[in-house]
## 1
Amino acid sequence: MRHKNTVALREFLKGYRAIDEADVHPTDQQERLPMPPVSLRRNGEIIPLPERDATPFGVLLENRCSRRAYSESPLTLEELSFLLWAAQGVKQVTEYRTLRTAPSGGARHPLELYAFVNRVEGLQPGAYHYLAVEGQLEDYALYCWALLELYGANFSVSCLREAAGLGDLMAELFEDREAGGFYRAGQDSEVLIARQKDVFDAAMPSGNAAAALALVGLARLTGESRFRALAGRQLNWLAGQAGDYPSEQCFALLAMAEALYPGLELVCVSAGEVPDWLAGVGEAYRLTALAKTADKARGLARVAPYTADYPIPAEGIRLYLCREGACQAPCPR
C-alpha cells in the first residue's frame, strides 16, 4: 500500500468543490419523513417463494447491521490485508483479462481501492492506496519519464541518477529477452499463470510505450550504450505490435518519432550557476539540455560519462552542441 497524508488528501478533495454550511442538508431520517414503499407492486401473478434455509451465510445476513459506535481496539495488519484482498485481490492474470475476488464487466476492473486507516497496528493514520499487484511496469516507466522531465526543469543530478537506476531495473525485472517487450508484472512479483504485456494506449499510455519514451530519453541524456540498445530493442518490438492497429498505440508512435527524428543535446558548462534560460531551451528548440557546474560535475560524470571531457571554464559558460554523445567545438558565451 502507499500512504498519503490524510489532511493533504482532504484538502485535495475539497479543492474540486467548496463545501460550506449552505450545502449541508438534513437527511430524510432527521426530518422524520415517511419511509418509501418497501416494495412496489406490479400487475401480474404472485409466485410464493419457499422459506429460506438457516444456513450459516443466511444467519450472517440476518444478523447484519450498520454500526455507528466503533471499537477502540485496532485491527491487525493481517486483518486489514485480508479485508483488502477480499475487496480487490488478484486471483489470476492472463493476456486478456484479470480475475479478482470482486467481479467486473469484461474483467477490466477500472476501480482503485483506498483504505482510510484510523486504528491499525503498525500503520500511521491516513489514506493508503492498495496495490493489488506490486511493482507493475507502468509504475517504473512513468516515474522514470517524470524524473527526466523534472531534470529538464531543475537540472538536479539526483533526478537523472534515479531515472537511470529505474531504467536498469526495468531491464532486470520486466524485459522479455527472448520475445521482446516488457511484461507488466516484474519477476519479483507473485507467481502468475501468465505474465501480460500491455501495449494499448488509452487515456493513460501503456507501460511498454512509456518505457520506450523513457529509454529513448535516457539514451540521449546519458549517452550510455546500454540504454541505446535497450531502447532499440523495445522500439523494434513495439513496431511489430503496431503493424495491425497503429491507432491503438499513439504514445508508442511518439516514442518512435523521438528516436527516428532525434533532436540535439546541449551541454551547458558553467563556472557559476545554471543559467535560468536553459530550462526553456528544450521546448523552444527541441533540444535535450544538460547542465554541468562545479558542484554537479562529479555526479553528472557518473551518469553521463561523456560530460567528463568538457572542462569548466574559469568564467562564464560554454555550450556544446552534441548528437548521441558526440559534441562539436564549444561556443563561449
## 2
Amino acid sequence: MTDARVRTVGGTLASKILGLSKWGGPLAAYYELTQAVSADENDSMDRGSALEESVLQLLLEREGYAPGALVRPAAPVSGGETMPYAHARVDAWIEGLDVHGSDPFCLVPELRTLIEAKTLALEQMGEEWGVDGTDRIATEYQIQGLWYHGVCRAAGMKLAEEALVPVLVGPETELALAARMVERTGRPLKLEDINGTRMELRVYRVAWDAELFSAMRARVFRFIRNHVERGVPPEPGDGDLTDRDLKAVARGISSKPGEVLDFGRLHPVHQATVADLLEAVRERKRWKELEEQAVVRVQLLMGTAEEIRGLDGGARVTWSTIKGGSRRFELREPRR
C-alpha cells in the first residue's frame, strides 16, 4: 500500500470487489478503500449490530457450550506478512471446538472455530438459504466466511475446517421488536425469549476451501495493485448500478481547506469523469434554456385553449385555470 489513506480489505469489501455482494460492487469498494469512508448503515445493519451478542448467546445455550469457550476478539485480525492488505473482523470464535465431520461436536484443544453471527428477516430469505445445519447461505456471506477463514490462517491461527454462521431468523417486525427490547433491557436474548414466536436460530456452516480462497485472494490483490494503488477506478459492476453505496461514500468525504487538484495532472480516466460532468451540466443548461423558450412559444400558440391532444405516445399539453385565476402549464405523459 503506497497511500496512507488506503484501508485493508475485510470480508464485506472482498465480496464487493469480486462482484458478489448485494451491497455494492467494485467501484463502491474502490472509493471505500481510497477515501477511507464507509457506506451508510441501513436498518438491517443497525438491527444486526443490536442483536449480535444475542445470536452468540443463543448459540451457546442451544448447543450447550460453556460461556467461557466463546472469545470476542478486541480488534480485527490482520493478515500478517503474507496478506498485509487484508483483515478479518471476526465476531467470535470458540476455543477448542471442531465441527467438521463430528456428531456431536467434539473438542480439539489446539483448534478455533470461527463464528459469524447474523440476523435475517424471513422476507429477505431467498432460495439460496437452506435449512438449519446446512451450508446453503447467501453468496456474500459464504465469501465473507471464507475470507475470514483465510485471513486468520494467514495470521497463523489453527482453525477447524468449518466456520459456524448462527442466524436469528424471523419476521421483520419481530426482529425489530427484539432489537428494541435488547437495547432497552441491556440483556441478550435467551431461547425462552424466542419460544412461542416466529423467530428461530439456525446454524449454518462455511467449509474451508483452500483452492477457492487462493483464487479470491489473487483477484483481490490484482484489484488493489491495478486500481487502488494506481488511483484508477474500475468499471462499475452490477452491485454499483443503484449508486446507493457510491452516494453514501461520497457523503462521508470531508473536504480539506486549500487542497486543489490540477485537471491536467489527473489520470486520463479521472479526466474523462470530470469532463462527463462538465458536459452534462452544460447540456442540462442548454436544454433548460430551450425548454423555457419552447414553453413561452407554446403558451402563445395555445392562447385561451386549455389543452393540446394527440401528441406522440399519448402525451398532452395542458394550460388550465386554477384557483385565484392563474393558469398552470404542464406537459403530461401517460402512466406506463
## 3
Amino acid sequence: MTQRCGDTLLFRTPPVIAAQAAVGGKKEGEGPLAAAFDELSSDNRFGQSSWEAAEKYLQLRAARLCLQKAQLPEEKVRLVLAGDLQAQCTASGYALRELGVPFAGLFGACSTMAEALALGAALTEGWKLWLLIPLAMLMGWFIINAEPAVHILNRQVEDLSAGAISAKAMGMSLSIAVSAAGGLAMLRVITGVSIMYFLVPGYFIALALSFFVPRTFTAIAFDSGGVASGPLTATFMLPFAMGACEALGGNVMTDAFGLVALVAMMPLITVQVMGAIYVVKSRRAEKEPALPGFGESEIIELWEAC
C-alpha cells in the first residue's frame, strides 16, 4: 500500500521507468543537450503542413519510439498521461487517438512532466477505484471555470437579469452541476450501471422543477446544459473517463460516453434549484412587515414606535 507523509507518497513497491524517448527539432539540435535526444529534425515542422500537425507528429513519434525501446505493444498500454496547455492537450489527443491507446489529458503548464510522473506512479501502485469519483468531481469543478463560453453566459445572464442572477451564483451552480456529473460518470465506469438510471430521473426532476420556478430560470437552465458540455469537457473529462474505463476492462461505448449527457443534464437541475431558492426568498421578503413611513418634520412618540 502507498503511504502518505505530508505531501510525499512512499511506495512499498517503487515504480520503474521502463523506457524513455525524446524527439526534438532544429533548436534542440543546436543546444547543449542535443546528444540526449533519440531523434532530431532540421525542419521544425517535421515535413508537416502546419504547426498543429507538426506537434501531433512530434508526440506520436516520441510515443512510438518509447514503446519500441520498452518492447511493449500498443495494445498493452492501459493509460497515457499527456498534455500541458490546451494546444498540447489537443495535439496529444490526436496523436494518441492515432496510436489507439487510452488518454487522460493533464492541464498543468510547466508542471505537466512532474505531475504526470507522480500521477502515473500513484496509478500503478494499486490505486483505489473509488478515488476516481472525487478526482472526477474535482476536475469537473475547475474545468467548467476554464470554459470561455461559460463566462460569457454568466455575464449575459447577469446583464439581462439586471443583477438579480449574479455571475457568481451562475458560476457556482454550473460548477456544482459539472462536478456532480463527473462523479456520476465515474460511478458508472466503476459499477457499469446503465446511464438510464441517471438520465430518466434527472430529466424528470428537471421537467418537474420547470413548473415551479420562473420561466427565466428554466430558459437559462436549458441553455446552460449546452454551454457546460463544451470543448473543454470533451477534451479533458471524456478522455479521462474513457481511459479509466479501458483500464478497468469496461465497455467504453456503454460506460464512458455517457459523461457528456450527464454534463448536459445536471445544469438543468442546479440552475432551476437556484430559481426555486430565489422564489422562496422572494416570498419571505414579501411577508416581512413594512415599517411605517414618517415625514422629516413629524414627531415620533416612543410608545408608537415600539
## 4
Amino acid sequence: MQPLPSKGWSRLALSAVAILAVAGCSTSAISAPPSTPPTNPSATPVAAPVATAAAPSATVAASTAAQTCAKPKLIVGAIHVGSILDAGYNEAEHDGLMEMIANVPCIKLTEAENVPEGPNVVPVMEEMIQVEGAKLIFPQSYGYQDFALQVAGAHPDVVFEHPSGYKQAKNFGTYWGGSVDLMYVEGIAAAMTTKSNKLGFVGAMPIPQTIAAIDAFELGAQTINPNVTTTVIWINTWADAGKETAATNTLVSQGVDVVTSIVDSPVGVVQTAEKAGIWSIGYHSATVAKFAPQHWLTGLDFNFGPAFTKMAQDVIAGTWTAQNLMEPLSAGMVKLAPFGANVPQTVQTAVTKAAADAAAPGFVFLKGPISDQAGTVRIAAGATTDITQWGNAVDWFVKGVIGQPK
C-alpha cells in the first residue's frame, strides 16, 4: 500500500441527522460537521466512515443496523474534491450516496472530502481499498480520472465509477446525466428574463463538458433572441469563492443581468448576483436557491441516488459491468430546479414546456448550421451531431459566446 500524504486524512463529521458506522453489529455515532463549507480547494483531505442509512435518530439507525446486518455486504469509498456541504457539486454527489445507503441494506460507506485533483488522491483510494476493504470506489471529480484508472489497474477486483469521464476499463465505468440538454433549456430561461441581452457564465475549468454546456446555453438563448450574448470568465479552479465573486462582479460591471456557472459550489456566484440585483441560474444542486431569495431564476438539480443504488446492487449481485453511462434527460438524473418566487408565470410555463420537450424522444438541439465565434460552420446545414461524442471533445464556442474556450 502506498503511504498517505504527510497530512493524512482524518475522520469526517457528517450530516445533521445521526449517521452510524457498521462493522459487524457494532455502531458508533459520527458528530455533526461545521456549518460553513471550506473554500480552499487544497485543504487537508478528511474522510469518514458512514453507515447503513441516514436516520432521524441514532437509536433508530443503531437498531436497524443490528437487526439487518451481521457485517456489511459491500464497503464503498467516495472521494470528493471539495466540501460535501457546498450547496453544489460535492453535496449533490454526497446526497446520491446517502440515498444509495438508504436503499441498499448493509452498505458501509467511507467518504473523503477536500482531496485535490492530483497524485495525492491515489493513497486515499489505496487506504479505502486496503484498510477499509472497499470494493466500490467513487472518485468523484473530473481530474481524478487518470489516477483512479491507475488504482483500478492495480485492483482488478474493485469496481470504480467516475463522474463525467470518457475513459473505460474492465472495472472502471463512468456516469452522467443529460445536463447539456438542460443547459439549452436554461438558456431559454435566461433569454426570456434578460433586459440587457447580456448573459454571463463563470466557468471553473475549460474542459469539454463545460464548453459544451456554455454552447448549449447560448444556443438555447438564441432561440428566444438571436442577438443575446454569453460572456465567459474562467477562474481555473473548481472552488475559490474569492475568484467566483470577482468574476461575477466583473460580469455585472459589463451589463450582464443573468448569470450562471459551473463551479463546485455556486454559492459565491449566486450570492454576488443577488447582492447586485441580477438573476442567477444554479448548477448541480437546488440547495443553492436559498442564497438568492429575490433573484433566483432556476437551475440544474442532480439526483445521483437511483444510479448509485443500481451500481451498488449490481456489485453485490456480481452483475456489474463497465459502461460509459450517459443517461438521457428523461431518466431523471438531472432535472429542472424549482423556479424562484419572483419568476413570472409566463417564463415558468414556457421553460417547463421546453424542459419537457428536451426530455422527449428524438430531441436534438445540435442541428446545423451552427458556426463558431469566427463564423466557421462547424455543423453543416441539415446535419446533426451526437451530443455525447460532441460533449466529450468540443473545444470551440458557438457564435454569440464572448471569451476564449481555453
